[in-house]
Amino acid sequence: MPSVQELITKIEHEIEELPQGVLQPDTSFRQLPEWSSMHALIIIALAETEYNVTLSGNDLRSCNTVNDLHQIIESRKG
């Protein structure tokens, strides 16, 4: 089971515009100035390829923090 910190590291690696260390478990990632709909697609693809979990746009909209996103991914892993 990956930790929330591992998820943060993967997100920071995939979204080059995010400065390293900006994301924390309680960060409201959708409120970041760098956030765009393209980043939502990147996170959806990341969940699919890294964790074999399908996320929807509604899933992301329901997440307030990185920890919320981590909890959804963990709850859907097989």
Largest sheet: none
What is the subunit arrangement here? single chain
Summarize the helix and strand pattern as letters: HHHH
N/C terminus separation: 11 Å
- Which structural category fits the helices and strands? mainly alpha
CATH top level is Mainly Alpha
Going by CATH, the homologous superfamily would be ACP-like
Strand content: under 5%
Helical segment count: 4
Number of strands: 0
Number of domains: 1
Task: Please bin the fraction of helical residues.
Answer: 55-70%
Radius of gyration: 11 Å
CATH architecture: Orthogonal Bundle
Low-confidence sequence ranges:
none
CATH-assigned fold name: Non-ribosomal Peptide Synthetase Peptidyl Carrier Protein, Chain A
Write down the overall mean pLDDT.
Answer: 92
Overall shape: it is globular
Report on this model:
The chain has 78 residues and is an all-alpha fold. The chain has one domain: Non-ribosomal Peptide Synthetase Peptidyl Carrier Protein, Chain A, CATH 1.10.1200. It is 55% helix and 0% strand. The protein has 4 helices and no strands. The protein has helices at residues 4-14, 37-51, 57-62, 66-76. The longest helix is centred in the middle third of the chain and has 15 residues, at 37-51. The relative contact order is 0.20. The model has no long low-confidence stretch (mean pLDDT 92).
